[in-house]
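User: Can you help me understand a structure? I only have the sequence.
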Amino acid sequence: MSRFIVEFLKDVLGPNGRQAEICQCTLEVEAPDESRAADIAKARFCEQEQLQNWSVHADRFQIKPATSPSR
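Assistant: Let's start by predicting it. Here is the structure, written out as tokens:
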């Protein structure tokens, strides 16, 4: 299985009136592929935040492969 980093992101207006991207949550998940990683991360995010739908607290998510720590 591969490891993926999934970030849940929200666009908000800053005090200066400019749009800013805020990371609501970052999860590391183990899954066979990106699609399954997204499903697992969405379920965990909902459980963690006590939500029925992840999009209540985030506008989008992005997935990237987790890098192995260098030795």
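Now, to help you interpret it: Helices lie at 34-49. The CA atoms of residues 12 and 20 lie 5 Å apart. Let me know which part you'd like to focus on.
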